[in-house]
DNA sequence: ATTACTGTATCAGTACAATAATACAGTTGG
DNA sequence: CCAACTGTATTATTGTACTGATACAGTAAT
């Protein structure tokens, strides 16, 4: 995982997304311990405070949870990981198709561009 | 055009993108007068100041230009509109494909999702 | 010329994200 | 037990985006 964040954009959403990607990729499995707020803060060059806030947001979505003093862990609920993956894919795909259709692109044109970029 | 911006995200980039979309769609053609900062401000529920700043950013990219007292206009350079369109499509497509591949999706899987969302 | 529109500039105030520093509390392994 | 790690909380500060108000200057049409 590359914890190189875009400092020009809000950091918390980026940290949340990175975590979600790792879960969606199954790099982090249900129940796994994840990196501490201080570890991530060091790698991502941000404040522990910022990571804490990001983790709390994911906790609120039920994706991860904390045990005081012990660390943060991926939710044991097996469905969550699959949900995170599906929602990520569908959200990104939906946004992308919508953007292209607003520009007036036909289905065939969209597929043409998609195929072009897959082969690289 | 729906000037309903997402107030939770930076407004200037959103205003810039809306303008670019209108140019890419050919709703605004080279040389066309575009809405004044005050008009857009009113419709988008933002400050004229914010629109001004957005316009200045697009001006720096050569997409639009101003004539003091007269208004803002789309660049007369015919290439610009085509560039805006192509760059928009390629940027979005590239980002999307990259996001999907990071998740480990194959080309076939990506195309499957794309086709699914086109039919809606 | 007057009027009503344009762009442009400035400044103070607000809201929020993130920093930086510090402290406290719970867990774990040697 | 103890040391080294965890999460959690607090406070003050910074940087930035945006607001709101106001003012000035150029354009264009009647």
Could you explain the architecture of this structure?
The structure is a homodimer of 120-residue chains. Chain A has 120 residues and is mainly alpha-helical. In chain A, 60% of the residues lie in helices and 8% in strands. Chain A has five helices and three strands; from the N terminus they run αβααββαα. Chain A has helices at residues 11-24, 37-44, 48-60, 78-102, 107-118; strands spanning 33-34, 64-67, 71-74. Chain A has a three-stranded antiparallel sheet, with helices on one face. The two termini of chain A are 21 Å apart. The relative contact order of chain A is 0.13. Chain A binds a DNA duplex (30 and 30 nucleotides) through helix 3.
Summarize the structure.
Two copies of one chain form a homodimer. With 120 residues, the first copy, chain A, is mainly alpha-helical.
Question: What are the key terms here?
Answer:
homodimer; 120 residues; mainly alpha; 3-stranded antiparallel sheet; 5 helices; 60% helix; elongated; DNA-binding
- Report the principal-axis shape of chain A: elongated
Most extensive contact: A-B, 28 and 28 residues
List the quaternary state of the chains: homodimer
Run of helices and strands of chain A: HEHHEEHH
Protein structure class of chain A? mainly alpha
Largest sheet of chain A: 3 strands, antiparallel
* Spatial strand order of the main sheet of chain A: 1-3-2
Number of helices of chain A: 5
End-to-end separation of chain A in angstroms reads: 21 Å
Average pLDDT value of chain A? 96
From the alpha carbons, calculate the radius of gyration of chain A and give it in angstroms. Answer: 17 Å
Query: Uncertain regions of chain A: pLDDT < 50 for 5+ in a row?
Result: none
Number of strands of chain A: 3
Beta-strand content of chain A? 5-15%
Helical content of chain A, roughly?
Answer: 55-70%
